[in-house]
Amino acid sequence: MVFKLFKNGDTLYDEGKEFIKRGEFGKARDYLQKSMEKDGGDDDCAAVKIALIDLSSQTTNPHMYGILIKKLEETDNEEFEFGLTQIIRDELKVECELTKRKLELIQSGGRGTSLISKGEQLQQLAMDFQSRIGERTLVIPELFNRDSTVTGNTEFYNLMAIAYETMARGVVWDNPSQAAEYEQIAAGYRQQNGQSGDDNMARIQAYSTTCKCWMCGRIATGEGIHFYKTDAEVSPALDNQSDTVRSKPEGDDHIYICLACYSAVSKRSDAISRQYYDKALQEMRAMEMRLQAEIMALQSQISMARMSR
Ligand SMILES: [Zn+2]
User: Fold this and answer.
1) CA of 225 to the centre of ligand 1 (A)
2) Which residue from 14, 100, 213, 292 has the least number of CB within 10 angstroms?
3) Structural domain boundaries of the chain?
4) Domain 1-92, what fold?
């Protein structure tokens, strides 16, 4: 009887494995779950496979990697198959640990100086991907995203780029030229990883652009950070700049305004709008009360007329 139960569990386990091969993960999960209830399977990896299936639809959720790591620690099998892929337990465990760290770091947000230490942690992680996985292809992207181009080394370049971009965001407010330097390094890593680095270049351009404020004449570096380009009508008579530092982009209906002038103008204009809004609302309320009074007067006239009929 006991033997029959074991056999039954094994059959369920084998069927679960077949469903994985066909990519029918939902059915595979059911069979594997049932096989575990009946102690089935010859390699004690049903729980690992269920964790892999659960991860397949949530590959950006660090918690799911935590569950898989736990299941990998609980199995004695050093090697097992998942569909047509042969998986080495300890290699997958390292990949999951590093990927979990990566997702937690990237999803952690932060601003200002905290971004500097986040950038340093990303660099450390990048080096861990390089030293612990190296040229090996990552299993999870290959299994679930059909992407076999991701290796420990490509993750190194990718994370180094993200690290320097994060640090650039951390310093740009105080030091745009330092931010431009970080973006330059990030662009280098992106290019080594076969990417264009165009976004980095656009930010370098913006961070290193210097202007003279059209309004106050101050010099500011860092477009979109310390100065802005705004719509303006500039007649030819006004557009006779001889300075090396420009107050407007060439041949454009825009002028440059430093953050101080820009924010002063926007705040003043907000305050003026607010005054108009409050005044309009006050008048509407007064009108509503007048109308209400007129309606009431009419209603009482009507009921008087009805009563006197
Ligand atoms: Zn200004």
Assistant:
1) 13
2) 292
3) 1-92
4) 1.25.40
